[in-house]
Design goal:
This protein is of the alpha/beta class. The chain contains eleven helices and 13 strands. Helix 1 packs across helix 2 and helix 5 packs across helix 11. It is elongated, with a radius of gyration of 22 Å.
């Protein structure tokens, strides 16, 4: 196994084609295929599935790719510091469900450490992609929630992916809505009262299982339901249609503005906000500070 072969694997996975990867690497396609085939023979399993339409990673190939990225990244840091002596920036990436408090904490880290020595990446995405990004080491940590309903399913995914979930805090459930919504003046609201307004939920794509929903009470028979792909659209629907979504109650006016509010839902349901990381990893300084920022913001908002 060589560093060159690992770089070939990474490029091929990004291009989903040996031919396109070979062009990007400035080598002949047969040479690339031969090198990858030799590596597959050495490790004892297929890293890619080949077809007429291109290539896709196998399950073992996805896991292998995560380690390959880690090895290549560490080599590049060593090369930059001790051999090439170039200014190679360290990379910090976080994947998260659609939480403004997680984005706010990320911004605080960027402000604290600056961008002269670091490259930052915040990936606000679907639940299964948060898990996959950490499993494949695209992100160091992933921020999401578990509760009594999805716990067994998600914890099995964590175990199978070599991941570990660390809880940060428990939250009650709130209905997040525009301050123009007639229910915004209430201290507590019921699902029955909310039934006259559309419930807004983040679309989970192909993995559109109740267990992957970013909102609790995903199996409740809502009379009106609208799926959205991003937070900006969700906010627009709250204003234009008096819609609402269910959340942790940790809202961020710095990002969403002060035109929205969180009204406590009349339910005993709880959600546990936490983060996932690879079991074999040691958190970087930035990851530790990031987690501290999330917890500090929660204490500030829900004091």
């Amino acid at each position: 196994m060589t560093l060159i072969q690992l770089k070939y694997i990474i490029t091929a996975s990004e291009e989903s084609s040996f031919n396109e990867a070979a062009k990007k690497l400035y080598i002949a396609q047969p040479s690339l295929s031969s090198a990858i085939h030799a590596l597959e023979k050495e490790v004892g399993f297929d890293i890619f599935l080949r077809s007429k339409t291109g290539i896709t990673l196998t399950a073992k190939g996805e896991e292998f790719l995560g380690y390959a990225r880690s090895v290549v990244e560490q080599y590049e840091i060593l090369d930059a510091k001790y051999i090439s002596q170039t200014n190679h920036k360290k990379h910090f990436s976080v994947s998260m469900q659609h939480y403004t408090f997680a984005v706010n904490a990320f911004m605080e880290i960027v402000k604290q450490y600056g961008m002269s020595e670091f490259e930052f990446e915040a990936i606000e995405t679907k639940t299964h992609e948060v898990i996959d990004n950490v499993r494949l080491q695209k992100s160091e940590i992933g921020v999401l929630y578990i509760n009594d309903f999805n716990r067994s399913v998600l914890e099995k995914l964590f175990r199978d992916g070599g991941l570990e979930f660390t809880p940060l805090f428990d939250c009650s459930i709130y209905a997040y809505m525009s301050k123009e919504n007639p229910l915004a003046v209430k201290d507590i609201v019921t699902l029955e009262e909310l039934s006259d307004h559309p419930c807004l939920s983040f679309n989970q794509g192909e993995q559109n299982s109740f267990y992957f929903a970013e909102e609790v009470l995903s199996t409740y028979p809502y009379k009106q339901m609208i799926k959205a792909n991003d937070r900006a659209t969700m906010l627009n629907l709250m204003v234009g249609l008096n819609g609402y979504t269910l959340c942790s109650g940790i809202i961020c006016e710095e990002l969403n503005g002060d035109d929205y509010c969180a009204v406590k839902l009349d339910t005993d349901e709880k959600m546990t906000i936490g983060y996932i990381r690879r079991k074999d990893s040691v958190l970087s300084e930035l990851a530790e500070r990031y987690i501290e920022k999330i917890f500090a913001y929660k204490e500030k908002v829900l004091k």
